What we know:
Layout: H1 3-18, H2 33-47, H3 54-62, H4 67-70, H5 75-80, H6 83-99, H7 111-134, H8 141-161, H9 169-173
Amino acid sequence: MNARSAHRQLCLVLRGGATRRFHSIPMLTQQTVADHSANVAWLCALLNQGTLRAELLLAALQHDLPEADVGDLPSPAKRRLSAEMRAALAKLERGVLARHDHTDYVAALFKQELRTLKVADVLEGLLRCAHEAQLGNSHIAVVAARYRRRSNSSLASLFRESTILRPWAPGMIWVGP
């Protein structure tokens, strides 16, 4: 890797990491993409009981970096996009990585690793909502309800299957005020 490429990569990491999450609702504590991504990486490691490929760890750290250029589009808005618009957004995000000489580690994941990444991403959101609710943030209830719906539908089987998550399952499913 040459110095110019390393500089482009580092610039995206620093700008992407500083991007604020949950920007559309009042929060008592601010979370950046760097905070979120580090938590997602740790959750991936926990979900895999400490055994994971470097590509999964790097994908967890990288998965939201394109938000430095694209912005953090709230999940409800993403889900309302047409299939064509979602594909265009994905292409735009891949382009951000390519312009900054980043390998697209998410694209390099196996199916089970991609599932682990998605579960860790949603689980991190649940934990953030729980933290804000514990601090007394009444505005987080709407976001927590969305995460609850997602966790109830897409994560229920994982909670049942995972020896690590099973003890948390009741608390994770009802997270929020």
